[in-house]
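Input structure tokens:
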């Protein structure tokens, strides 16, 4: 480890963290020990490589990485509002429910917009303390009262979050809400981007508390029913709220495509405005976006969605660990949805391999 540059070391740590995060709910103690040994061997190998000065992104996106197709579950493409490609791989079918990972966060953002449209929530600059009065009574740092819904959406709450180690403890905590709110405030709210899955779970709690419905019931009533999304598998966290973090939602790929098409149409589905045009435009505007190390190069994040450019094409996309994507190329009226097997040691490689290689080929083939 001592021979690895600091930047490279951080990337390796992040890779291992995402792999643990993807398997945290099913891994056995024996497997965990074996994986730790393997990881230690990998570190030893990497530290002695003569090519250690190469950028991590160059290594990850090289042609030596296992082909995307080996882990691909589905590829769906919509052009001008019509499905032009629908393929399923590796034993999956159109009826298979796929773990969407952090695409859950993008869904939470849509649901928050609907809650604002329906006047359940006044506005995104409302302090979250209004929705967590009992929890805030026990907090000593009064600056946390400045955290708003906007900050949760933008991953800029300022609350400390240390990746997979934090997430494992959070999953096992008796009170996931207080676990997040009790974290130290490392930055002023809104000041800095810091990926925090526990914070986006609070969005699900807010929806339930302000509407008197579960997040799933709210989604069914105001979104899923109109989109004819009839089959989802959504887990609850401790305290009984549906997961908003990205570790508990399975959907059909075709239903992910419907979400992309809804956003492409500025929130309209079959002539009905399901989420306001103003909210959709807020999700994808150039304003209020934070630089992020994840996704396409030079990506920015805001309101739980990502934004970048690829070969001159503006790209708006949602992303989940291991290669779960809803990708919109508005200038070409093109939407690409993929689901992949996240339960592998190659999740980050799969993700970046697709973005840096296969995506451009799909845009070229179907975008003309």
């Amino acid at each position: 480890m001592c021979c690895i540059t600091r930047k490279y070391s951080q990337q390796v740590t992040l890779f291992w963290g995402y792999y643990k995060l993807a398997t945290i709910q099913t891994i056995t103690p024996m497997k965990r020990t074996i994986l730790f040994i393997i990881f230690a061997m990998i570190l030893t190998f990497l530290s002695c490589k003569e090519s250690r000065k190469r950028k991590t992104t160059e290594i990850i996106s090289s042609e030596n990485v296992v082909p995307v197709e080996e882990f691909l579950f589905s590829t769906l493409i919509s052009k001008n509002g019509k499905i032009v490609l629908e393929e399923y791989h590796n034993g999956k079918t159109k009826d298979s429910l796929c773990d969407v990972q952090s695409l859950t966060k993008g869904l939470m953002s849509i649901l928050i917009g609907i809650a604002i449209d329906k006047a359940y929530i006044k506005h995104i600059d409302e302090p979250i303390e209004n929705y967590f009065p009992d929890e805030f009574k026990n907090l000593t740092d009064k600056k946390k009262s400045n955290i708003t819904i906007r900050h949760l959406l933008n991953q800029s709450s300022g609350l400390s979050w240390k990746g997979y180690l934090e997430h494992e403890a959070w999953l096992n905590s008796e009170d996931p809400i207080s676990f997040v709110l009790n974290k130290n405030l490392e930055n002023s709210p809104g000041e800095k981007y810091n990926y925090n899955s526990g914070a986006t779970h609070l969005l699900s709690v807010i929806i339930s508390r302000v509407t008197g419905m579960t997040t799933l019931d709210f989604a069914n009533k105001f979104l899923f029913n109109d989109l004819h999304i009839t089959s989802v598998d959504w887990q609850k966290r401790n305290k009984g709220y549906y997961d908003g973090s990205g570790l508990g939602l399975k959907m059909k790929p075709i239903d992910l495509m419907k979400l992309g098409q809804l956003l492409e149409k500025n929130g309209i589905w079959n002539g009905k405005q399901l989420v306001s045009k103003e909210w959709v435009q807020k999700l994808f505007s150039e304003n209020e976006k934070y630089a992020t190390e994840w996704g396409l190069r030079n990506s920015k994040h805001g309101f739980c969605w990502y934004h970048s450019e690829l070969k001159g094409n503006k790209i708006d996309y949602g992303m989940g660990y291991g290669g779960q994507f809803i990708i919109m190329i508005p200038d070409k009226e093109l939407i690409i949805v993929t689901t992949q097997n996240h339960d592998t040691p190659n999740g980050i490689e799969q993700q970046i391999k697709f973005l840096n290689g296969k995506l451009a080929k799909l845009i070229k083939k179907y975008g003309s």
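Residues 1-16, 18-26, 43-66 have pLDDT under 50 and may be disordered. The domain at 97-251 is CATH 3.40.710.10 (Beta-lactamase).
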